[in-house]
Design brief:
Low-confidence stretches: 1-9, 122-127, 206-211
Structural class: alpha+beta
Helix content: 40-55%
Distance between the termini: 59 Å
Strand content: 25-35%
Length: 325
């Protein structure tokens, strides 16, 4: 194997498609290293909030990679729990971002309850935390391609022990596609890392007789693949020395792994001064006056924490120009 190919297989911050040759199952593996650390460290989130937002970001990367689109894919949770919202989106060019809305006191109370239940061994997955942290609500999957086509959205109830459970339930109920996901998010050497693997059983094309003949064999292949997938440990998923390619070979070497060119992901926010000015233009005159503090307007992007500071008089002049356009 050439040095260049080894380097391509070992890089992080990627989404890599793959296929299991023996069973024709298709999959994606995501490795997010410094990109995730940079996104999460832009916010002073409690660890549990960072954990769940990391899982949301990882799922966003996994799910977007199975779609053909030119635009933005968004994964969002909305709930009544201490963490009221988790949002992550990715563009078709791999620009990734995310943020969380939460009540700090309620999150701390939930953390104490979870720690008591688990005897201070909460772990690195969101298992058994979903109800306590997110409460009743929903998960929404949105594909926005601008004016080119109608926006697509799928919604599923926040139900199960984890966000992974919710996503798998959505595919089983709404898309009729059997889906298996294994992911881990955690800190290694003080830095956030994430990795996830998704396998899907794509419906066969062809006549009913062909499908029936293969059904039993397909089920055996699927069950074997799911056993292998769930055998993957968090330590393997988060090991900085274990490449995505080596991990796939370790798990599925008997299945015949074929990997394809990866897509690189990077932290990038779409906020801008122009967008801030448009937000101000949609506000009432009284609301704009209310946000003036110490003779300045300060508006912080929820995704990247960039603080836009504007002069009130210049902002009013710009608002007038926007409204006259």
């Amino acid at each position: 194997m050439s040095g260049n190919l080894i380097h391509k297989l070992n890089v992080g911050n990627i989404i890599r498609p793959f296929q299991l040759e023996e069973s024709s199952l298709r999959g994606r593996i995501v490795r997010i290293d410094d990109v995730l650390d940079e996104i999460l460290n832009k916010h002073d989130y409690p660890p549990l909030v960072s954990q769940l937002l990391g899982e949301t970001i990882t799922l966003t990367a996994l799910l977007s990679s199975m779609l053909k689109y030119e635009g933005i894919f968004t994964l969002q949770t909305q709930g009544e729990g201490p963490i009221s919202m988790l949002v992550s989106d990715i563009t078709s060019d791999g620009d990734l971002r995310g943020y969380a809305a939460f009540n700090e006191e309620r999150v701390e109370t939930a953390r104490e309850q979870l720690a008591a239940f688990a005897r201070d061994k909460i772990g690195e997955g969101s298992d058994n935390q979903l109800a306590q942290l997110l409460g009743k609500g929903y998960v929404a999957f949105t594909v926005d391609q601008g004016e080119r086509t109608e926006r697509y959205q799928g919604i599923v109830e926040l139900k199960g022990a984890s966000l992974v459970d919710c996503v798998q339930h959505y595919f089983a109920q709404s898309e009729q596609i059997e889906t298996g996901i294994r992911l881990a998010v955690g800190q290694r050497d003080g830095k956030w890392r994430a990795s996830g693997i998704m396998l899907q059983k794509i419906p066969e094309e062809g006549g009913a007789q062909d499908v029936e003949m293969k059904s039993n064999l397909d089920e055996d292949d699927w069950r074997r693949a799911m056993i292998l997938l769930q055998s993957c440990k968090d330590e393997e998923l988060l090991d900085p020395e274990l490449s995505s390619y080596d991990l796939l070979i370790r798990l599925f070497h008997e299945e015949g792994v074929r990997v394809f060119d990866p897509m690189t992901v990077q932290k990038s926010c779409r906020c801008s001064l122009e967008k801030i000015e448009n937000v101000l233009a949609m506000m009432s005159d009284d609301d704009r006056k209310e946000i003036v503090v110490d003779d300045k307007i300060s508006m912080v992007c929820e995704f990247c924490s960039h603080d836009y500071v504007l002069d009130p008089k210049e902002a009013e002049a710009r608002v007038k120009e926007i409204k006259e356009q």
